[in-house]
Amino acid sequence: MEEAQHQTVNQAANTSLSSQSSLYVGDLNVSITEHELYELFSRVGHVVSVRVNRNQATNSAYAYVNYTCPEFAQEAHSSLNYTMLHGKQMRIMNVDPDPTQRKSGAANIYVKNLDPLVDNKILHDTFSAYGQILSCRVATNDAGESKGHGYVQFEQEEAASKAIQEANGLLLLEKEIFVGPFMKREERELAASPSKFNNVYVKSFSDATTDADLYRIFGDFGSITSAVVMRDTNGNSKGFGFVNFENADDAVRAVENLNGKFIDGKEWYVGRAQKKSERQLELRERFELNHRDRTEKQKNVNVYVKNLDANVDERVLKDFFSSIGHVVSTKIIRLPDGQSKGIGFVQYSSPDDARKAISEMNGVKLGSKPLFVARAQRKEDRQVKDGIVNGPRINPHHMFHPGAMFGQQYFYGQPLPSIMPHQANGFGYQQPMMPAIGPGGVPVPNYFMPSPPLRAGFQGPRFGKRGMGAGPHPNFVHQQVAPGNSNQSSRYSQIPRYTSEVASSRASEASASMGGPSDNVRTPSTATNVEQQRMILGEQLYPLVDKLEHERAGKVTGMLLELGEAEVVRLINSPEALKARVNEALDVLRLAKSGSVPPSAELSSLSIDESSKR
Asked: RRM domain spans which residues (predicted)?
């Protein structure tokens, strides 16, 4: 027991000693390198390691420097703090293994109304008279210019309290500064009362209004500390300004008396000055409320119409549906070049007319085509419905389940026993065995499906310089790597030749054994069997996929064809749905390439993408 306690004490001592030898270096230029920091800090003592962390989004960086002993760290903190490096003053702090005090803000103070020339070092030197400082920083913009305020964190709360009492109102470079306790944004927002404010926002006044006019008009309600008309770079008035009262009650009275008053022929707006974040939040909430109200009102009066002739415009659509009731508006969805997409919307003045149009106009011909008419739905509602009908989409993070997909794996070119023979190249290059994807992106257990073969004579896409032939590919005899331990020497065996006719026949048998397409799914009229149907769909789907993903078009097409005919037809007719499915398939391939596939009974090291390289 005593030995365990002794070990715990030693570990705590080692941790403390290690933290005392480490320094945090902040406010670094994003272009700084670890080598530069190593060279700089090595002048003080032996450096164990340097690590730089960069944030490209905020164009900032910070680093950790570890010394062999605390003495070197302390000397570096004293001599190198606020050193200019790549045009920025670096800020050095001792690494505290317990961030509780730092995050609590107990000994932290806020300083504002700083002169633009005040930097970190000047602020540190000013407040170091009140106690030991852990961190000191002047807030700056992206250009490195001071925002006029800063923060000082002391080691002791007593030092912070003393600084607030004695430094508040102090002149620093000819400017009187304000010093107060630091408050988190959440605390400031809770403390700020909408009925208690000193700063007033005024707008919609004439261009001739000056600062002196604001002082004169608002001065009737109390003492004013500042009043300004905001102007552009040319000195022209922007039409708004700010007035700051010494007393909050005077500011409230000014708002009550001047808001909506006509001065110099202009109706003034006078209200509490809001922060940008407050204003944005208020506008966002107002927009969302209006959007919900508008959506609720239009929920049952909008009608969705598709299968429109290309020559049908808004006027023709309105005239046609006006026979049911009063039409408020019509809209035809068009391509960027102005060509109709065959889809439109009709808004009625009452829900009854909309319901009547759906029941009576569905299937009625407008021009040469029968219309499809249904209740219009928001995109969010359609996505929820699609999720229920089609099942969950592919989730790349939960795609691979041990034992579910990888019951038995095969190298590319190896036929599935009694299911699928080796096939001629379907889309211009050798396809690997891919995990079959069921409706909604659900993987079919223990089943790997290559991209389907195309009918004889199909040439496939011309890859040109990518080294692929443009004509039909002969049925070469491919070689396979025999399954086995990766440490064993590879053995090769020949695979029987299969013509496209044999492959098509075997594929039909496989589709039947796997269930195939359901009887209620309509097949293309030219397809005499399931495999021909897949060929036809593949020929239509491939060019669309190739536009979205050129490099792996054949592989992705093969995966999508396993979703079933109904889903593939939907993808061919819906660019948005196709794009989503292609992205899902690419996520699966990326996971396989990164080696995230769980181990399986055989060939555990083989991933989907690796098989395509063999």
From this structure: 21-97, 107-184, 198-275, 301-378
